[in-house]
Amino acid sequence: MKLLPKNIEQFLKHIPADVRAILVYGPDQGLVAERAQRVAKQVIDDINDPFNSAHVTGEMITTDPARFMDEANAQSLMGGKRLLRITDAGNTVAEPLKSWLKDNPNPSCTVVISAGDLKPKDNLRKICEDLPNAAALACYVEDERDIGRFLNDLLRENGFSIAPDALQLMISSVKGDRGRIRAEAEKLILYMGAQKQITITDIQNAIADAGAQTLDDLITMIFVRNVSGAISAFRKVNEHGGEMMLILRSLQNHIMRLHKVRVSMDTQGLSLDAAMAQLSPPVFFKQVDGFKRQVTQFSAPQLRLFMRDVAVLESKTKQTGTAPETLFEHFITHLAA
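^ thats the sequence. predicted structure below, dont judge the formating
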């Protein structure tokens, strides 16, 4: 079955008993790892228990195709449920998985598969989306609202509360996949110690936001049409380990927020401040003036064209043999010129 984003959390809390294989895939590998572990721990308490659990990689199955059937059909040495984890999976896992799922699969075994950013036509993804006793969960880079919800929940679970302005700053600072975001949150928790109320000063002291600041600089330089500054900022983002998909998602999110404000002003007659007040999360206070200038500089049709151009760029980075960095610098030159 194919799970829509809105249904994933409910599925993770109550996995149907007749689902024998769960594929967790997508560009956010931190979120892939986190969700795969959540699924695995619903099968058995200790996912490293050698008597009830097995772990193989996609490469191991490629080298020895019979390995999948051997592991999936094995019985727990201690009785009860058995877990088979497959990491770094590719399409070579698809055929043995399909055969197993269609041929009365071992009812005591659940297969949890972790993979990268699979395309809709990839066999592994199609099988898990199409067969009734399998499921596919996509893990995409999260937007600011999802990041804010995750951080708020994580901090609350650990006994902390966070001021709204501090949460805004943290959201703008912890760029990256779910794994990086969780690591920054855990570092903040360690920094806070017994102090349970998190302020903006705590975020400034505890969160290393140099990479995020560079990403903000990149977006700003693009929208003030500073080509050389944008290219310089882009190269700094790469030096900080910025991933192309994160850069594209951040740029898309920024354009969508600009467009939402611009449309609210044009169609509802709202003032700039009133239109911006509808944004969630709100614009970080240090970025308000720049955001306002960008809203007034571009029309809604121009912003829609920008969104189309970013989508085309994303497609090119996946389909052509040209280095994504080269494509993005050409894009900067076009968009900021």
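The longest helix spans residues 244-268.
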